[in-house]
Amino acid sequence: MEVARRAALLFFPVAALFLISLYAVYALDRDSAIESLMHEEEVVVHQQEQHFTRTFNTIVSDLLVLTGHADFKEMLNDLDDDPYKHLFNISHEFLSFIDHKGTYDQLRFLNMEGLEIVRIDLNSGQPKIIPKEKRQNKADRYYFKKTASLEKGQIYISPFDLNVENGKIEQPLKPMLRVAIPVIDKHDVRHGIIILNFLGKHLLNVLGEISTNAPGETLVLNTDGYWLKGLVSEDEWGFMFPERSNKTFGSRFPDAWSTIATTDKGTLTTKHGLFTYATVKPLTSGWASASGNYRAYQPEPGDPDLANYSWKIVSFVPSERIQAESSRLRLPLLVLGIILTIVWGMYSLLSSNARAHKKIARQILKEKDQRIREIIDSAFDGIITINENGIISSFNPAASTIFGYAADEVIGKNINLLVPSPHREMHNDYLRRYIETREAHIIDKPREVEAVRKDGTAFPLSLCIGAKQYSDHWMFTGIVRDITERKKMEGELEKMAVTDALTGIYNRGYFNRHLVTEFNRSKRYDVPLSLIILDIDHFKAVNDTYGHPAGDALLIAVATELHKLARDTDVVARYGGEEFVLILPQTDGQSALILAERLRKAVAEIAVSADKEMISVTISLGLACIPGSEADSPDHYLRIADRALYQAKETGRNKTVLGTD
């Protein structure tokens, strides 16, 4: 009895101690695994959300650039004269755009009757201009009706649906997002719409690539819960196919959908598994949109609430995967507990086994942390974390590439190292105010800022910062992207907007704006100003005899000669067709006449080869000067020069005439 009593006294405390210890190890591993998994999924979904939003901004930016194209505006201004004489240039400009981008299936200009006036198709990577006889009338499509009714400056964004051609869903399926804007000239006259068809596969594929190394399955849903990217392809695009109308996220996961549908972002766990989600709301202040209709040729249900015009990005980890991730030690610990209970006397062995299994648990935690680190290290964007004092605690390889610092050069230093003045001096105060008041000026708000590389050069940066509190301390995570190339491209597009595509000199739009500036300066400061307008004599005969390529070569040669003889301060522009104009600041009439004669003689010496012949031409010039004319406006001033040109052509051509009032 005594032996039994002592055995019991020794057995129960020791057994209880080890059972409690083993359960604690299991619970720690389980909780850590789930927490790591949730954090990993949050990072992936956040990156996908940012890419989704950036894609929308890029599409809208492209649309605005196309609408503001100088040749397109010029076509609208000349519609009453000859509405189709500019279509050749516009079509080829739009063709180059589609070829360069590669992400748009179609670019169209539709008139107010819904007829495609210009249509460019990507054509499986071989862009082409669709001829007139193959263009369609889209007057009965929801996106045309809605866009045509919008006000100037409003932008229409369609639902994310499948492309429809000739009343049928195109096969193979082609996910499409249409963004359009009404074409309204400066006189508020409506001419139609410009619409871009964005190939949705590019967006969906990138979302999938972002989550390649993550455990979750990426899903994309529309506002009604239909699958745009689903678990199986047979469930996708249910709103377009009557036989799939019941294939929704809500019907598959009703308990999760009730929360996801009513909140913008978050993480929740149901019996089905872990759902991490975010809501993409692409519309910003000043944009307009319409709901459209998911079925072709049917009326749309009305304008949606802009705040609810959205898509859901969901990462789904099945419960079986979570169970596998969080229960790796369940069976080993159960077996160990039985052994320890039976062989209680082998206390040293029990203690050793406990320590060994604790080491295993720590290794598993370390491996999970390493997986998260690998995801961050392989991210395309730079990811930087700092504490509440602005001290850098992590710096991924993409950030090193962007800023030029190795991680060990910046970790432990203040983030101000990467921030230019005057923001550098205010950064720590901003962190302190945010922690104290939660007033966020840049937290959770994507924006473009200026940053500083290791070599001291400043560059533009896209920045999004997230903040999270852990008990008594804070962690701030910044996702950054170098947008130098994008800014450079925007600058090139701005240059294209003021340059004539054929000759490379300024276009008519730039000339019109610059003439107003120089005319006002001349009047305000009483300084001389001269204006020359010239026309190639008998240019139509050149085109008719030798063809348009020869005519184009001649235009380029003339433009080159004009630019060579003009001063750096002069403006040389193609006014239209074979007409050119020069603005000569601080130049009186006598000096302008001398230059005009030099131009006339220089052009007469030009010879362009065509069909084994050398083509030579002459020019007629009209000149207006201040002082010397009583022009009361830039238009009046231009008419004086134009009448002088007309007089030169009527009195024999190949001469210069000085205009008078």
Q: How would you characterize the overall build of this protein?
A:
- By secondary structure, the chain is an alpha+beta fold.
- Helix content is 43%, strand content 23%.
- It has 19 helices and 25 strands.
- It has a 6-stranded antiparallel sheet, sandwiched between helices.
- A hairpin with a 6-residue loop joins strand 2 and strand 3.
- Helix 1 (2-67) runs antiparallel to helix 5 and helix 1 (2-67) runs parallel beside helix 10.
- It is elongated and about 140 Å long.
Name the structural class.
alpha+beta
Q: Ends: how far apart? A: 133 Å
> What is the total tally of β strands?
25
Number of alpha- plus pi-helical segments: 19
Low-pLDDT segments, ≥5 res: 290-301
Write down the oligomeric state: single chain
Mean pLDDT: 84
Rg, Cα atoms, Å: 35 Å
Using the alpha-carbon principal axes, give the shape.
Answer: elongated
DSSP helix fraction: 40-55%
- Biggest sheet, strands in spatial order? 3-2-1-8-7-4
What can be said about the biggest beta sheet?
A: 6 strands, antiparallel
Provide the β-strand percentage band.
15-25%
Tags for this entry?
single chain, 661 residues, alpha+beta, five-stranded antiparallel beta sheet, elongated
